Amino acid sequence: MKILQSHLAHRPELLARFRREAAAAATLDHPHVLPIYEVNEEQDGVPFFTMKLARGGSLVERRGALAGRCREVAGLVAKIARGVQHAHEYGVLHRDLKPGNILFDAQDEPMVSDFGLAAWLHEASDLSRTIMVFGTPGYLPPEYVDGRPEVLQATSDIYSLGVILFELLADRLPIPAEASLSAMREAARRPAPALRSVAPKAPRDLEIICARSLEMEPSLRYQSAAALAEDLERWLRGETILARPTPRVVRAWKFARRHSAIIGVTLLCVLLAITGVTLNHFRQRNLERLNHATAYDRTVCLFPVEDLETLTTDSPQARRVARLCQAVAGAVEGVSVVSVPTAPDPLPRGSHLFPFSQKLKARFLVTATIRGREASQRLVLHAIDATRDVAAPPLVLRLADGTEADEVQKIGALLRDFCSASRREESSAPEPTDDPARAAVEQYVKAGDELVRRFVPAEVDLAIEAYGKALQLEPDDPDVLARTAYAMSIRSALGQSEVWIPRARAVAERAAAAAPLQATAQRTLSRVYAQLRNATAAREHALTAFELDPWDAKAASAIAESFYMVGALDRTLMWIDRAAQRDTSPGGYEIARGDYLTALGDYDSARAAYGRAAEYRPGLRDAPLALAHLNLLEGKVTEALTQVRALHGGQFADDALVTQTRAAFEFHVGDVGEAEKLYRKLAVDPDGGFAAYAGVRALSALGCLARQRGDPEWRSQVEEALAIDEQRLATGPGDWDLLFEAAANLAQLGRTEEAFRNLRVAVQTGAWICRMMALDRRFEALRREGEFGQICEVGEQHLKEMRARIKQSANP
Predict the structure, then answer these.
(1) Average pLDDT over residues 596-614
(2) Exposure string (b/e) for 380-397, b if CB count within 10 Å is 16 or more?
(3) Which residues share a beta bridge with 104?
(4) Which residues of 736-766 are buried (b: 16+ CB within 10 A; e: fewer)?
(5) How high is the pLDDT of residue 697?
């Protein structure tokens, strides 16, 4: 809440300024602008307004950690610029952009706040034309300090954005903040230093973007915040930025304006500079032509072929295919080939790629993966031009007896065509397009992306609707189709899976058919099949996604999940580590890694992983919920119940996963009355209660509790739950989770032998279920049987052997 102090409310200028802030901010509605919820006045006439609570703090606390992390900084400032552009489009100028006014929500998304100094761009009031210097020293553009009439322009905010960008990249302000007005005016006459004079490792393109934003003359800066955001996004995508360094002639002209007393000498210097620049220009062109003829420009580096079945490069299949690639590439005319024994995982991209290629003395880099598929080998190659960070479409080959020679020759065609095309296009930049329909599609997609991240059923429904509007404009857009399928899969996890899963699968298959080389559609299909408990299909599509985009962390995570579904925890941990290596956000996969370590029985390592997740991502429910589950398995029942009750009774009262986990904990070891109350709400969905830590299907839990109190209706509830289990097992045969749930229902119905048969099969792939068998009240009758203990011993022995294999592979 913001409120004007009562002893200041009688001052008209402060009251007007306060009301102006509310009026300015209340008109704005953008994901990266802090929203105003209510504007009102107290009984004594003192105005106030309320805003969204920014749980993530401000940029002030984060700027030190961001120093030098160029991609994160560029993405962050691009989002901030988009929010500022939205304000400008509504005629609102901020005038006090600084780290303290950039706040973060719980999802770490930035929001521009504090429009207390905002001015209407087209307003001519005395208040907006005051000569008083508003704002924060160090972030003010030169025209603010000089009191020039250009002060009310969008380019003034561009300068402040440039200061923020410079500060985050270099860990210091471009021009030190001065306290007095005279010192501020003196500082305003000095141009900002070049970024790389302060931060030598900063990319050249970011230096150019900073310089364009920090031009002393407003007309030389970016003319809109959208243009600044677009250039940053182009850099992130590896595309050519539109800004160019300020020509030396322009620098001389600006110098002359600031030093009118020596204008004659300056003019002479300008003429000499023009002559020098012209000669230097031709010299540079000649040098570039010579450089293009060097060996670097003609060299291709082949990295070892990786066998995705063994995750090594020294399997017989990988070595054989590597020799084939080497032979074919070496025969390409005009191309030199080098190879290296090892490759970093993943291969660097973005600003790190060009220096990496220079060390290898090769402009073109080629990576390859191979894996068995039916009666053949599937080979996928990626060719990258390191000077521009541009990749050719992946080349997918099927190597089988009788076709190998013909297929491998395609590698030579790929290298020849890609290398020659890259040399022709290296100096060209894509022409900007003005397509209103495409712009509308992008807006709908952005709206859908924002909504789907909230994981609330009603808002995910709105996201699906937004994607649907985009598809009305471009029905076959594979990216929008893949996003729609992903949103539908998220919606199925929040309820009504029997409705949404078939839809998600159909739309994802449309996306994959429209763009066979798009990884996103394959990854979404993997997610859908995982929800259908079909581990084989889930892994096939996840591996395909990884082949098409080896830099995709989510694809590697999907492969890990598919191995977890069949109990291969050693492979699971290898792939989740690969996902973490590809994730740019700290702690992104620590929860998943902790869950897999918990299943393995390595509780100390799991607790450490959850601790890192809590440290990197505070304020979220994931780490506390996972730690509560770990405490439950370790026998710390009171602590586990206290943790999950605190989560459910606080800010996560409406969170689906927290609610289901609370119900499961109460059912197993807590208050059965509270468990029944929660499960009655969850029973509206056939899978309600199942997708949680220690989860139990709501119908099964309600049947168990009804049986314990002598309610004759218990049997029909348990039989209905068993029917759902059997239906799900039809699409996911052998799934340990479903077999465990079915066994619990069979045990309640007195079908002991069938229950034990399910448990024996389940423990072969999900050995860790033996721990939940000891907690789950539905197995009370089975615990008296000797076979129950034998199955638990088999599970623990499986886990012991797997831990030994993992330790041996880590220390060969």
Answers:
(1) 95
(2) bbbbbbbbbbbbbebbbb
(3) 110
(4) bbbbbbbbbbbbbbeebeebbebbebbbbbb
(5) 93
